[in-house]
Amino acid sequence: MEEITVSLVSLGCAKNLVDSEVMLGLLKQEGFSLTTDPKQADVVVVNTCGFIDVAREESINTILELAELKKKKCRLLLAAGCLSQRYGDELLFLMPELDGLVGTGDTGAIAAAIKRSLQGERPVYIRRENPAPEDAPRLLSTPGHTAYLKVAEGCDNNCSYCAIPSIRGPYRSRPLPAVLAEAEKLAAQGVRELNLVAQDITLYGTDLTGKRELAPLLKELAKLQGITWIRLLYAYPERVDKNLAAVIAAEPKVCNYLDLPLQHADNRILARMGRRLTMEDMLAMLSGLRREIPGIVLRSSFIIGFPGEGEEAFGNLLSFLAEARLERVGFFTYSREEGTRAATFRRQVPESIKQRRLEQALSVQSRVMEEHNRSLLGKIMTVLIDGPSAQDPGVTLARSEGHAPEVDGYVRISGRHQPPGRLVEVRITGSCGQDLLAEIL
Ligand code: SF4
Asked: Which of 155, 167, 302, 303 maximizes ligand 1 atoms within 8 Å of its Cβ, making it the mutation to test the pocket?
């Protein structure tokens, strides 16, 4: 076969990144050469994101930018991921720059799509459930000591504002043996930190055995040689139960960290979102977690400007933030998504009000974060070395159990560099915005 070089640009969330890494593994297995530089590629694939407006914009701009390369070496431009799954034909019609599309359930067909396109089929359009085999090869794009482990696909929660169930389909857990086999392979190749991801990890196993299997999965993962940290991302708050809390508390390898998107805190808005906990339930759950797992770091995310969110409802969210004192928080402004129930709701909030409220929420949360960081001064903690700072050569970037990759900032260590993947003891000497400053003991 003629040597064909492929470059894959991955956008969106960690789940999409795992799909990208699997597609790269399959392309290599099929004999394609790979490059991280799209300018050097014969074929460029964009693994898109498309669940809210800003993500769609980024995906479309990226496709248009990369289409410029077709004036040079690039012969084919294909799109995969949520934007291609959600808009399919419409996307092909609106973007003649694209030579083909692969759906979110078709990562297994990426090589076939490129081959058919190279043979002249235009546009190639594959959206018929060709998932990658469970033991598909995967080329990590994260630093070698850390990786995401996707345990399931799709979602059944059907929050009123969310298009993901219509894009990614119903909840499908990966079989336990397949998840363990992949984790073992990752450990063997030097991964020390496993970040568990899905749309909702707490639903894991219910479609297979009718029972929640996340806690048993964690116990099995904790037995793996070489794995040092296991981190839980995207937990659905209603299913954070005593069983799960007990495993987090008992298993030293399971990080004292939990990411649980709460989305809002006003009871009327929570009900309109289709969320099943009230503010009181959430406060009780958070204090229960902190009682059972002292020192746990809690991350959450909230939507600002949901239809019907008046000043009082927004005020309730601000008071909740001040009371809940979550260590890590991300905010999104509401995006009116066609095909969702909330898109039909009256009392849509104007963009200017969303932006004003976003700034208010950010300032409340940054005070909470600063107080949290101040409370860590002088503390000794174990951190995982990520590597030298690109911006600041004298600084090594590391993360504690309380810092998820890419979203929670770093522990910045001055002085002699330490190899990535090593665990070291540090003393916290200060903070700078979201980051902590530390010295090695
Ligand atoms: S749990 Fe998350 S992915 Fe599922 S419907 Fe709700 S917001 Fe969407």
From this structure: 155
